[in-house]
Amino acid sequence: MSPTAVRVALRVRPLSTAEQSQDQTQCVVCDSAENKLTIGINSNYRSFTFDHVLDDTLNQKHVYDTCIGSLFDKFIEGFNATIVAYGQTGSGKSYSMGTASDGVDPGIIPRFIHHLFAAVPDAQISATFLELHNEDLIDLLNPASKNISIREDSRGNIYWLGAQEQTTASPEQLLSVLHKGTIARSTGATDMNKSSSRSHAIFTVIMKRYISEEESSGDSATDNGGKIAHHLKQVESKFHFVDLAGSERLKRTNAVGDRVKEGISINSGLLALGNVISALGDDSRKTSHVPYRDSKLTRLLQDSLGGNSQTLMLACISPAEEDFVETLSTLKYANRARNIKNNVVQNFE
Ligand code: ADP
Ligand code: MG
Fold first, then answer.
1. What are the residue boundaries of the Kinesin motor domain, all occurrences included (predicted)?
2. Which residue, 25, 67, 176, 283, has fewest beta-carbon neighbours within 10 Å?
3. What is the ipTM of this complex?
4. Active-site pick, 55, 92, 199, 333
């Protein structure tokens, strides 16, 4: 994998009880061993391959173990990482991320939190939790605060001025920060008559720690007689967990008024994200221009997409036939993110 590559995992949720009772048929077939998925209705079908295809029988632990390992390892070494959950409302983004977790079978973030404190007990860990709605940034850890702005320092690091950064000393404390922000998000949504499915949520874990660098004090690194000195250097990295707004198209939701404004903002954010990710994976590009500035979402994630950072897109889909159109559109988006020509068997667009 090249350093800028974006990995794409595709997860299919099971049919819900309601869908089962309506005798909904499934329009996707997974071959998880081959990381291949075929979608179709009637005799029209199309196959896609991704880095991981996770069928509806695979549990949360499997998803974590399969998808997070390399991001986690690089993160604790000091590299930024980003996971974006993409898909239509109801496809399993929050379930997979673990923001809406009931604690029975926790998702990615709670697992990550326990993993992190166990792996680097000496690290300093803090977190921020932002919501992006209609290009407005809301601090979910301090919803009363206004005026959060995105800044870039001289080394190209992005930070958000005015957002609360909560320091945490245990997994329980960090989980309660996640919980607090999740509650603020759904309360705010009710107050403003907006669904949380129409905003992006960005939970960011920031780690600072000292790592030792072994250096030989002799003239050459192979000088066995040289004394080994341990130098400590501080590393700092960010891990963004992004639960994106529902990707469903405006038409389907019969949007009017404010909903239209929201829809335009969501679409432009998701489009910009798709363009950035696709530009990162495109080795044939002559220029290195990546259009981060096209949306607040991509600007916010600028130092954590591409470069030395690790990125995973978790595309979530419903298997139900009635969701065929949205599911196909998610597959196409995810396929474009991967920017590898799929060897597709295809007989429709
Ligand atoms: P989204 O965040 O994409 O709108 P949710 O994560 O809220 O969707 O999922 C919608 C519903 O489907 C929830 O009731 C959730 O518990 C259920 N669900 C989603 N994915 C799975 C899964 N892999 N296994 C079991 N239930 C799931
Ligand atoms: Mg959700």
1. 5-340
2. 283
3. 0.99
4. 92
